[in-house]
Design goal:
Blueprint: E1 9-13, H1 18-28, E2 32-37, E3 53-55, E4 61-65, H2 66-69, E5 75-79, H3 85-96, E6 100-103, H4 117-123, E7 128-133, H5 148-154, H6 157-160, H7 175-198, E8 202-207, H8 208-214, H9 217-226, E9 243-248, E10 251-256, H10 260-270, H11 284-289, H12 291-303, H13 307-316, E11 321-323, H14 327-331, H15 334-338, E12 342-346, E13 354-358, H16 382-387
Parallel strand pairs: 1-2, 1-6, 2-5, 6-7, 7-8
Antiparallel strand pairs: 3-4, 9-10, 10-11, 12-13
């Protein structure tokens, strides 16, 4: 069964996480992705971001770090030095066969090699050229480097993350990079639709900081509406109470009470039905105003219950509740297995004969995602890909 993007070719000039996240997703959807890597550096920086690394059949660590593999399946790796005239000519030849170019150099970084958006779009008006950078191609910060941590700091999310009396805290994974890659994918798919209608390509300019600002979501609009700076609330929610991680007798539990009827059923479970009738707590607005007083009441009651009893009791009352899983529990769960969120891809040249990766969350009935190519070693496809170019290219 053909993928949704079967027949689409992508020239991938990206590294680290935001760009590779985008191109891996497009590759999962069926596109042919050619990843150009720099021989002067040994390829994508994340190849060196181990351990852990996959070992070869002799037990020696390879350039397939776990970090690199997280965003680089369904790609061919080609070693090309774009700082040389020959490398520039090869990239132009690869671009001529591509529908989409994705790059994450600093603004203007590829133009000095004749590979910028204006250069390639002049040659190929139907090309879709997506540039990912820290701050975008306009604005006073356009020349500053872009890293996930910097974007989380500049974009405000760190000011919201962490305990109320703690330091600003980043999210545990590179979420600014990942979300920027997702927004880039949406933009590319929209540009493909426009190209189908008109034949026109275009330049997509997307920044880590812009995407970070966009997914401030309710906390961003809370500020815009009220003028009040949001506070760090740890695991609490600014607009819903109780919506929190609570200590129980043998661990922690997530409780997310979304409406007043759920709150009444929650109080019934705790054996304090009268709390749901207390004017301080009868509505969500009242509960927000009296957050601390409510938490002081329900916290000790929850602490006396076991995790299993809390989950079973609240699920029986249709109150949203769940565990705080460790990664092994999450990926090993029956739910994750049923949804194929861990996939094994064969590689005969590695010690285990396969690599295990996180699955794609898209479940499409007519054009399902496919896992065709395991993450590549640096430059492993150079000869085969460049041999397909015409001699004068």
């Amino acid at each position: 069964m053909a993928g949704a993007l079967d027949g689409i070719t992508i020239l991938d000039l990206t590294r680290i996480l935001a760009g590779p996240t985008c191109t891996q997703l497009l590759g999962d959807l069926g596109a042919d992705v050619i990843k150009v890597e720099n021989p002067a550096t040994g390829g994508d920086d994340t190849r060196g971001w181990g351990p852990p690394n996959v070992c070869d059949t002799a037990g020696k660590p390879t350039d397939l770090s776990a970090y690199f593999m997280a965003a680089n399946r369904n790609k061919k790796s080609v070693s090309v030095d774009i700082a040389t005239p020959q490398g520039q000519a090869q990239v132009r030849a690869l671009a001529a066969k591509a529908d989409i170019v994705v790059e994450n150099f600093k603004p203007g970084g590829l133009a000095k090699y004749g590979l910028g958006p204006d250069d390639l779009l002049t040659r190929q008006p139907g090309l879709i050229y997506c540039s990912i950078s820290g701050f975008g191609h306009t604005g006073p910060n356009r020349d500053k480097p872009g890293y996930d941590l910097m974007a989380q700091g500049f974009g405000g999310i760190m000011s919201l993350t962490g305990e109320p009396d703690g330091a600003p805290m980043k999210v545990g994974v590179g979420i600014a990079d990942v979300m920027c890659g997702m927004y880039a994918t949406v933009g590319i798919l929209a540009a493909l639709r426009h190209k189908e209608r008109t034949g026109e390509g275009q330049h997509i300019d997307i920044a880590l900081v812009d995407s970070q600002l966009a997914w401030l979501i309710n906390e961003g609009t809370n500020y815009l509406e009220s003028g009040d700076l949001p506070l760090r609330r740890g695991n609490g929610h600014p607009n819903i109470v109780p919506y929190h991680v609570f200590a129980v007798a043998d661990g922690h539990v997530i409780i997310a009470v979304g409406n007043d009827s759920q709150f009444a059923r929650f109080c019934d479970f705790l054996g304090c039905a009268e709390v749901a009738q207390d004017p301080r707590f009868t509505t969500n607005i009242a509960r927000i105003a009296n957050r601390d007083a409510l938490l002081d009441i329900i916290g000790p009651k929850l602490a006396a219950n076991s995790l299993a009893d809390t989950i079973a009791g609240l699920e029986a009352r249709k109150v949203p509740v769940g565990p705080v899983n460790t990664i092994d529990q999450a990926l090993g769960s029956d739910q994750a297995q049923a949804r194929e969120m861990v996939v094994a891809m064969p590689r005969a040249d590695v010690q285990k004969g396969q690599v295990r990766l996180l699955g794609n969350p898209l479940k499409m009935s007519r054009t399902p995602v496919t896992y065709r190519l395991a993450p590549p070693h640096f430059g492993q496809d150079t000869q085969a890909v460049l041999a397909e170019l015409a001699p004068d290219e």
